[in-house]
C-alpha cells in the first residue's frame, strides 16, 4: 500500500471548519454536508476542509488533540511505556501533516505541534523496529502489536514481509542444502 | 454616625498586615508581609517612616514608645518608637508568633504562636515569662483582660480559651470556631477584643459577647448585610462601640448597648480586612487589608473619651446625639457589588449626601457636662462583677450601674435609638451603557462588536490603535483595517455599514463615523459631530438607518447615507440599543433599582410605512439581582435579551408582547464561573449562538474563540417526563414560529414551506399528547388538547378516540370539530384580507425568480425585473437562494429578508401571476362543460370555456375578475383544506367509521364550494 493511499483514507476523517460563505446542505454519496453558515462551525471531511481552505473559504478548527499540552503528555507516555500507547487519532500523522501544511495559520503553535508529532512518530517507529528485531532474532512465529496506526504498519510492512520471506527461503534452503551435503558425504 | 471613608492607599506588598495607633493618636503604624513597619503621620503622608524588622511581620503592638513586633524569625522584637532603633528581643518561639498585644498599662506583652503556646512577658524583665499551654493548634489571637487578671486566646483548634494569668490555668474554653491546621488556612483571624466587662469573639458572621467572670454569653451582634466571616474586632476607646472587619471587606460598628449597627462601610475593593484599630480619641478607625492597603474611616465621633475621665461622658452622648440628628447615612448604599463585570466606576458620582458638616463642630459645649462624669468612670472602671445571664439586664446594669439610675442615653433615645443607619432596601448602582456583543472597553484587545454579520476588533496598545473589521461571510465585504485615530469606543456592524463612535474630549466633540461600504457611489464614509457636551453612549444599525443614543438622553436617527432624521428624547439614561430591519429596541434606566436589581425600561419602535411604538416603555423583566448583558434581535426579527444570570428571554408577540424565558445558558455551563457570551439568536433553525468562556464572562480576542450552538429550552415543569417534554416542544415550536405572523404582517417575504412544516410538527405533537392523555384516561385533558388542534387533526383525533372505544370523548370532539368548522367560516372574510401579503409573496417565489438576498434589503423599485438582473449578476448567490427559496430562513443573517412593500408586489404579481377571472370561472364551470361534452380533451375544454366566457356579459366578466382579486387569499387555504380532504379520504378507504365522523369528513369536501358561494355572495 502506498503512503498516498493511506493519506487518501485519512482525508475521510472529519474536522471542524468555520466557513466564510453560506451554502445549503449539499448531498453527496458519502453523506450530507452542511448547511454552511458563515461564522458557525460545521463538520466536514478533511479533503473538503483543505479544498475550501485553499480557496480561502474557511478557517479550520484544529482537532482537540492537536494541542501542545496534550501532545506533550502523549509523548511522555509514549516514551515511558515499552508497548505502543493509544494515539489520539488513527490518522494522527497524516492529519498533522495535511493540516499543518495547508492551514498552519489556523493552528496555534504549529511548529511545536509538528515537532511533537514527529517525536511521537519517531518513538513509535523505533519501538516498531525494536520489536521487529526481537521478533526475528527470537525466531518467533507470532507477534501481536496493539495500537498501531495504518501508516505505521504501512511503513514497515513491505520491508518486514520481504525480509521474512527472504529469511524463510534462506532457512529452508539451508536444510536441504546441508542434508544434501550430508548425502553427498555418504555417497 | 456618619463617617467618611477615605480612599485607600498602598502601604505594603500584598499579604497579611496589621495596624495600630500610637498612644497619642498622632501616628498610624502598620506592618506587612514585606517585613517593614511604617509610621504614617496621616493617611496622606507620602513619605512614611519605614523600619525594617524582618522578612515578614505578622503582628505589632505599640505602647509607651516601645514597638513590639512578631517577625518571621520566630522572635518578638522591641523597637523604640518613633525612632525605630532595635531594643532587644522580648521572647522567642519555635515558630513565628502570630499575634501580640499589650496589656492596658503597657507592662506586659502577650504573644500567641504557631507552636500552640501563649506567652505573657513582662516588658521590663523579659525573663519573667508565663507560658500558657493547652491549645492544640496554632494560636490565632490573644487579648488581655483590661484588669490584667485574665487573658483570652483563640486558636486554630477551634477553641477560644480564657486563662488566669497568675496561675497559668485555663478558666474556661468555648468551642466556637471552625478547626483548621494553620493560621493561613483559618477561615477567620478571630482577633478577640476585651472591654472591661465584655469579651468580644468574632464567630462566623456575628460577634458574640461574653461576660467577664460569669463567662456567660450575653449577646450577639450581627448585621444583616454581613455575609462573610468577621476577621477582626476592636472596641472603641470608650467601650461603647465595637468595630468589626470582615473577610468580605465589610466594616461594621455596633452600638453595643442597643445592639444596633450604627455604621457600615464597605472596603472599596472588597478585600479582606485583617487589621483594625481605633484612634485613641475614638473618632477614627484605621484598617488594613490583605492586599497591603491602608484605609481610614474618619469622623466617627467627635472627641476623646477614655484618655480623660473628666467630662468624657458627653462624648458618647454627643456622638449619639449627632447621629440621631443626621439623616440616615446613604454612604454604604452605593457600595459596589464586587462581582459585577460592568460596573467599573459605575457610580462614583453617587456619593453620600448625608455627610454631616456640622458633625465635627457640635462637640462638648452642645450638651454641658453634668454630674455623669462619675457615672462614666464607673462604667469604665467598675470593679463590681455582673453576673446576670440575660443580656438586657446585663447591659442595663452596666449602663446605669449603681448610680442614680440615670442612663447615659436619655430614655427617648433608648426607646428608639433612632435608626441611625438606613437599613431598608439599598439602591443598586445603575449599570453603564454598553454595546451588546462587545467586551469591556478597558481591555487593550477587545471585541467592539461580534454579531451575525461579522466581528469588529479594537486594539489599543503601545504600538497600535486600530480597528479590524472582519465579515463572517466574505461575500458581504472584504476585511478592513482602520487606524483608530479618533479613539472610537463603540461600534456596530451590519450588511451595509460599519458605525463607530467616540466619546468627546475637552477639545473635540463626540463623533459618529459611518463606513457605508455598500454605497454605490464613491463616497463610502461620513462623519457627524455631536453638539458640545453630548456623548454617544450606544449605537446601532438597522436596515437603511443608524441610531445613536447620547448622554443628553436623546436618541438620534440617521439615514445610512448620513441624512439626519428624527430625534426623540429617552425617558432615562440609555443602557443599550439594538436595531433590526425597521425595528429599534431601546433599553434605558427607568429609575433606581434596589437590592441589586436594575430598573430598566424597554421601548420597541417600528419604522417603515406604519411607524409606531410597539412596546411603550414597559419594565424589562430581568432575573433577580442581575443586569442586562445582551440585547438584540433574533435573525428573524424577534426582540431578545439575556441577563447576567444567563437567562435568555424572547418577546412573545402572540402573548401581548410579554417576554418568555427560552433558555438558561448557565444550565449548559460546566463550571460555576463559566459563562456563555452571546453572539446571535436564530429561531429557524433554533439556535443560540454563543461563545463558551471558561472562568470569565467574555472571551479574549486570542486565541480566536469558537462559536458554540445551544438549544432552546423553555423552563416548563417536569421536562423529564414524556408529557413535559412534548409540552415543552410544542410551546417552543409555537413560540419560535411566532415570527412568521410578524413577518408576514409587516410585509416581509416568509418561508411558507417552513411555516407549514412547523404547523405540521405542532399538530403532530398535539396528536401525540392527545394519544398520551387518552392512554392515561385523561379525557378532559384530551379535549383541551384537541381545542388547540386544527380541524383536520381533530378528525384524526376523533378517529383515534372512537377506535379506542371512547365514545363519550369522540362525541365531545365531534362537537368541537363542528364548532371549529363554523368558526373557520366566520373567520374567512378576515383571513382573506390578512393573508393577502402572504399570498402574493408565495406567488412570487413560486415564479422561480429567486431573489438574491445578499443585497441586504435595498429597496428595489421593480421587483421582478430587478431580481432577474441581480440574480444573473450574482450566480453564486442565486445558487444558494433560488435553489431552495424555502430554505432562505436557514441562512437568515446572510440574507435578511428584504421588506417587500405590498403595493409594489401587487402591481407586478396580481395581474401577471394571478389566476385570472377566467380561470376562476373555468374552475366553477368546468364540471358543467364536462357534463355537456364528456369526451373533450383538456385543451378543448379550455377552448370551449373561453368561448363560453366570452359570451358572458361584460359586467359578469368584471365580477369574476374582481373575485379573482378578492379571493386570491383563499387559494392557499383551499389547497390546505383539499390536502386534508385527501388525507381523510385515504383513511376512509381503510375502515368503516362511526357515524358521526363521517359527517365530519364531509365537511372538508364541500368547504371549497361553500367558500366560492360565499365569495359570490360578497360580490
Task: Give the N-terminus to C-terminus distance of chain A in angstroms.
Answer: 50 Å
Range of strand content of chain B:
25-35%
| Biggest interface, residues from each chain | A-B, 18 and 24 residues
Describe the oligomeric state of these chains in a short phrase: heterodimer
Work out the radius of gyration of chain B: 40 Å
Major sheet of chain A: 3 strands, antiparallel
Query: Which word captures the global form of chain A?
Result: elongated
Helix content of chain B: 25-40%
Output mean pLDDT of chain A. Answer: 88
**Biggest sheet: strand arrangement of chain A:** 4-1-5
What portion of residues of chain A belong to β-strands? 5-15%
Shape of chain B: elongated
Number of DSSP E strands of chain A: 5
Count, helices of chain A: 6
Helix content of chain A: 55-70%
Structural class of chain A: mainly alpha
Mean pLDDT of chain B: 75
Could you characterize what this model shows?
- Chain B: This is WD repeat and HMG-box DNA-binding protein 1.
- The complex is a heterodimer of chains A (187) and B (1019).
- Chain A is 57% helix and 11% strand.
- Chain A is mainly α and 187 residues long.
- Helix content of chain B is 26%, strand content 29%.
- The relative contact order of chain B is 0.04.
- The interface between A and B is medium-sized, with 18 and 24 residues.
Any chance you could write out the topology, listing elements then pairs?
The complex is a heterodimer of chains A (187) and B (1019).
Chain A: H1 3-10, E1 14-19, E2 26-28, E3 31-33, E4 42-45, H2 46-54, E5 58-61, H3 68-80, H4 92-103, H5 110-137, H6 150-186
Antiparallel strand pairs in A: 1-4, 1-5, 2-3
Chain B: E1 4-5, E2 9-10, E3 18-21, E4 28-31, E5 36-40, E6 49-52, E7 57-63, E8 66-71, E9 75-80, E10 86-92, E11 97-102, E12 108-113, E13 118-122, E14 125-132, E15 139-144, E16 150-155, E17 159-164, E18 169-175, E19 193-194, E20 198-203, E21 206-211, E22 217-221, E23 230-235, E24 241-246, E25 250-255, E26 260-266, E27 273-278, E28 284-289, E29 293-298, H1 313-325, H2 372-381, H3 391-400, H4 411-415, E30 445-450, E31 454-460, E32 465-471, E33 480-483, E34 490-493, E35 498-502, E36 511-515, E37 525-529, E38 536-541, E39 545-550, E40 554-559, E41 564-569, E42 574-580, E43 583-589, E44 600-606, E45 612-619, E46 628-633, E47 639-643, E48 647-652, E49 658-664, E50 675-682, E51 687-693, E52 708-710, H5 722-736, H6 738-745, H7 752-775, H8 779-788, H9 791-803, H10 807-834, H11 836-846, H12 863-873, H13 875-882, H14 902-913, H15 917-932, H16 938-951, H17 954-990, H18 995-1018
Antiparallel strand pairs in B: 1-29, 2-29, 3-4, 4-5, 5-6, 7-8, 8-9, 9-10, 11-12, 12-13, 13-14, 15-16, 16-17, 17-18, 19-20, 20-21, 21-22, 23-24, 24-25, 25-26, 27-28, 28-29, 30-31, 31-32, 32-33, 34-35, 35-36, 36-37, 38-39, 39-40, 40-41, 42-43, 43-44, 44-45, 46-47, 47-48, 48-49, 50-51, 51-52
Helix pairs in contact in B: 5-7, 7-8, 7-9, 8-10, 9-10, 9-18, 10-17, 10-18, 11-14, 11-17, 15-16, 15-17, 17-18
Amino acid at each position: 500500500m502506498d503512503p498516498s493511499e493511506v493519506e487518501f483514507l485519512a482525508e475521510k476523517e472529519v474536522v471542524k471548519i468555520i466557513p466564510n460563505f453560506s451554502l445549503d446542505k449539499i448531498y453527496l454519496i458519502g453523506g450530507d454536508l452542511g448547511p454552511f453558515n458563515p461564522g458557525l462551525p460545521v463538520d466536514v471531511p478533511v479533503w473538503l476542509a483543505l479544498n475550501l481552505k485553499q480557496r480561502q473559504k474557511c478557517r479550520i478548527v484544529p482537532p482537540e488533540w492537536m494541542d501542545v499540552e496534550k501532545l506533550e503528555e502523549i509523548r511522555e507516555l509514549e516514551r515511558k511505556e515499552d508497548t505502543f500507547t493509544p494515539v489520539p487519532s488513527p490518522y494522527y500523522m497524516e492529519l498533522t501533516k495535511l493540516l499543518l501544511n495547508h492551514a498552519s495559520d489556523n493552528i496555534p503553535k504549529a511548529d511545536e505541534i509538528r515537532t511533537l508529532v514527529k517525536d511521537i512518530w519517531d518513538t513509535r517507529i523505533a519501538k516498531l523496529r525494536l520489536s521487529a528485531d526481537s521478533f526475528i532474532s527470537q525466531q518467533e512465529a507470532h507477534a501481536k502489536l496493539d495500537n498501531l496506526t495504518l501508516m505505521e504498519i504501512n511503513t514497515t510492512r513491505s520491508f518486514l514481509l520481504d525480509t521474512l520471506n527472504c529469511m524463510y527461503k534462506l532457512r529452508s534452503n539451508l536444510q536441504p542444502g546441508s542434508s544434501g551435503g550430508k548425502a553427498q558425504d555418504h555417497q | 454616625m456618619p463617617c467618611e471613608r477615605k480612599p485607600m492607599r498602598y502601604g505594603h506588598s500584598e499579604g497579611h498586615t496589621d495596624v495600630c495607633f500610637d498612644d497619642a493618636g498622632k501616628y498610624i503604624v502598620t506592618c506587612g508581609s514585606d517585613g517593614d513597619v511604617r509610621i504614617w503621620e496621616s493617611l496622606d503622608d507620602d513619605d512614611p517612616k519605614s523600619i525594617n524588622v524582618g522578612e515578614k511581620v505578622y503582628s505589632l503592638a505599640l505602647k509607651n514608645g516601645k514597638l513590639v513586633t512578631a517577625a518571621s524569625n520566630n522572635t518578638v522584637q522591641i523597637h523604640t518608637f518613633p525612632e525605630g532603633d532595635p531594643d532587644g528581643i522580648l521572647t522567642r518561639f519555635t515558630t513565628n508568633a502570630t499575634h501580640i498585644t499589650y496589656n492596658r498599662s503597657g507592662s506586659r506583652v502577650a504573644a500567641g504562636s504557631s507552636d500552640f503556646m501563649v506567652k505573657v512577658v513582662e516588658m521590663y524583665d523579659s525573663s519573667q515569662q508565663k507560658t500558657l499551654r493547652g491549645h492544640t493548634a496554632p494560636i490565632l489571637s490573644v487579648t488581655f483582660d483590661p484588669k490584667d487578671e485574665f487573658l483570652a486566646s483563640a486558636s486554630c483548634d477551634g477553641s477560644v480559651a480564657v486563662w488566669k494569668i497568675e496561675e497559668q490555668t485555663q478558666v474556661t474554653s468555648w468551642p466556637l470556631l471552625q478547626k483548621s491546621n494553620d493560621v493561613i488556612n483559618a477561615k477567620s483571624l478571630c482577633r478577640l477584643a476585651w472591654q472591661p466587662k465584655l469579651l468580644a469573639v468574632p464567630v462566623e458572621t456575628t460577634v458574640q459577647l461574653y461576660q467577664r467572670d460569669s463567662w456567660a454569653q450575653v449577646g450577639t451582634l450581627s448585621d444583616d448585610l454581613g455575609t462573610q466571616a468577621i476577621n477582626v474586632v476592636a472596641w472603641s476607646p470608650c467601650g461603647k462601640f465595637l468595630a468589626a472587619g470582615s473577610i468580605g471587606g465589610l466594616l461594621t460598628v455596633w452600638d453595643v448597648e442597643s445592639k444596633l449597627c450604627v455604621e457600615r462601610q464597605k472596603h472599596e475593593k472588597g478585600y479582606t480586612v485583617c487589621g483594625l484599630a481605633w484612634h485613641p480619641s475614638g473618632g477614627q478607625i484605621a484598617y488594613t487589608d490583605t492586599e497591603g492597603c491602608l484605609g481610614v474611616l474618619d469622623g466617627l465621633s467627635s472627641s476623646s473619651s477614655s484618655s480623660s475621665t473628666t467630662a468624657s461622658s458627653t462624648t458618647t452622648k454627643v456622638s449619639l446625639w449627632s447621629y440621631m440628628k443626621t439623616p440616615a447615612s446613604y454612604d454604604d448604599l452605593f457600595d459596589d457589588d464586587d462581582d459585577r463585570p460592568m460596573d467599573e466606576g459605575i457610580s462614583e458620582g453617587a456619593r453620600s449626601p448625608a455627610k454631616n458638616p456640622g458633625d465635627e463642630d457640635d462637640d462638648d459645649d452642645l450638651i454641658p457636662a453634668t454630674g455623669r462624669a462619675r457615672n462614666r468612670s464607673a462604667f469604665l472602671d467598675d470593679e463590681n462583677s455582673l453576673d446576670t445571664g440575660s443580656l438586657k439586664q446585663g447591659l442595663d446594669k452596666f449602663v446605669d450601674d449603681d448610680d442614680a439610675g440615670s442612663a447615659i442615653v436619655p430614655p427617648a433615645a433608648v426607646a428608639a435609638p433612632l435608626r441611625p443607619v438606613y437599613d431598608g432596601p439599598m439602591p443598586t448602582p445603575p449599570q453603564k451603557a454598553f454595546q451588546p456583543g462587545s467586551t469591556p472597553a478597558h481591555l487593550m484587545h477587545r471585541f467592539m462588536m461580534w454579531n451575525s454579520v461579522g466581528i469588529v476588533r479594537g486594539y489599543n496598545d503601545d504600538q497600535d490603535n486600530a480597528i479590524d473589521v472582519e465579515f463572517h461571510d466574505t461575500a458581504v465585504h472584504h476585511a478592513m483595517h482602520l487606524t483608530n485615530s479618533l479613539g472610537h469606543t463603540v461600534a456596530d456592524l451590519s450588511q451595509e455599514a460599519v458605525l463607530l463612535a467616540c466619546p468627546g474630549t475637552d477639545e473635540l466633540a463626540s463623533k459618529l463615523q459611518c463606513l457605508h461600504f455598500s454605497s454605490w457611489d464613491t463616497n463610502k464614509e461620513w462623519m457627524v459631530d455631536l453638539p458640545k457636551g453630548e456623548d454617544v453612549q450606544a449605537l446601532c444599525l438597522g436596515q437603511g438607518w443608524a441610531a445613536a443614543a447620547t448622554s443628553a438622553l436623546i436618541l438620534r436617527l440617521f439615514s445610512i447615507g448620513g441624512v439626519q432624521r428624527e430625534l426623540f428624547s429617552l425617558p432615562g439614561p440609555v443602557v443599550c440599543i439594538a436595531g433590526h430591519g425597521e425595528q429599534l429596541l431601546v433599553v434605558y434606566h427607568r429609575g433606581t433599582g434596589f437590592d441589586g436589581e436594575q430598573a430598566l425600561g424597554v421601548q420597541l419602535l417600528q419604522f417603515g410605512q406604519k411607524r409606531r411604538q410597539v412596546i411603550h416603555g414597559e419594565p424589562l423583566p430581568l432575573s433577580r439581582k442581575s443586569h442586562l448583558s445582551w440585547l438584540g434581535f433574533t435573525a428573524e426579527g424577534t426582540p431578545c435579551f439575556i441577563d447576567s444570570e444567563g437567562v435568555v428571554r424572547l418577546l412573545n408577540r402572540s402573548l401581548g408582547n410579554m417576554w418568555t424565558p427560552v433558555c438558561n445558558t448557565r444550565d449548559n455551563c460546566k463550571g460555576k464561573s463559566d459563562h456563555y457570551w452571546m453572539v446571535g439568536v436564530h429561531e429557524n433553525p433554533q439556535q443560540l449562538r454563543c461563545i463558551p468562556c471558561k472562568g470569565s464572562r467574555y472571551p479574549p480576542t486570542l486565541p480566536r474563540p469558537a462559536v458554540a450552538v445551544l438549544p432552546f429550552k423553555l423552563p416548563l415543569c417536569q421536562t423529564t417526563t414524556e408529557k413535559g417534554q412534548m409540552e415543552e416542544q410544542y410551546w417552543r415550536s409555537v413560540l419560535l414560529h411566532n415570527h412568521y405572523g410578524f413577518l408576514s404582517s409587516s410585509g416581509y417575504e416568509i418561508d411558507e414551506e417552513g411555516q407549514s412544516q412547523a404547523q405540521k410538527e405542532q399538530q403532530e405533537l398535539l396528536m401525540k399528547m392527545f394519544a398520551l392523555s387518552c392512554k392515561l384516561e385523561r379525557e378532559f385533558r384530551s379535549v383541551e388538547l384537541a381545542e388547540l388542534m386544527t380541524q383536520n387533526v381533530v378528525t384524526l383525533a376523533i378517529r383515534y378516540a372512537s377506535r379506542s372505544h371512547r365514545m363519550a370523548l369522540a362525541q365531545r370532539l365531534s362537537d368541537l370539530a363542528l364548532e371549529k368548522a363554523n368558526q373557520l367560516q366566520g373567520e374567512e372574510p378576515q383571513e382573506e384580507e390578512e393573508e393577502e401579503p402572504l399570498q402574493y409573496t408565495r406567488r412570487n417565489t413560486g415564479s422561480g425568480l429567486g431573489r438574491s438576498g445578499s443585497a441586504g434589503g435595498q429597496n428595489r423599485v421593480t421587483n421582478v425585473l430587478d431580481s432577474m438582473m441581480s440574480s444573473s449578476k450574482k450566480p453564486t448567490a442565486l445558487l444558494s437562494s433560488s435553489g431552495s427559496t424555502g430554505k432562505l430562513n436557514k441562512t437568515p443573517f446572510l440574507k435578511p429578508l428584504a421588506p417587500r412593500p405590498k403595493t409594489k408586489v401587487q402591481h407586478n404579481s396580481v395581474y401577471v401571476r394571478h389566476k385570472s377571472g377566467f380561470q376562476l370561472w373555468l374552475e366553477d364551470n368546468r364540471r358543467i362543460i364536462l357534463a355537456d361534452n364528456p369526451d373533450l380533451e383538456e385543451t378543448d375544454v379550455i377552448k370551449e370555456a373561453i368561448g363560453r366566457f366570452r359570451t358572458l356579459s361584460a359586467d359578469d366578466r368584471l365580477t369574476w375578475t374582481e373575485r379573482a382579486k378578492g379571493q386570491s387569499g383563499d387559494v392557499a387555504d383551499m389547497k390546505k383544506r383539499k390536502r386534508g380532504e385527501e388525507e381523510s379520504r385515504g383513511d376512509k378507504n381503510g375502515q368503516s367509521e362511526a357515524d358521526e365522523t363521517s359527517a365530519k369528513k364531509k365537511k372538508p369536501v364541500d368547504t371549497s364550494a361553500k367558500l366560492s358561494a360565499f365569495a359570490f355572495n360578497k360580490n
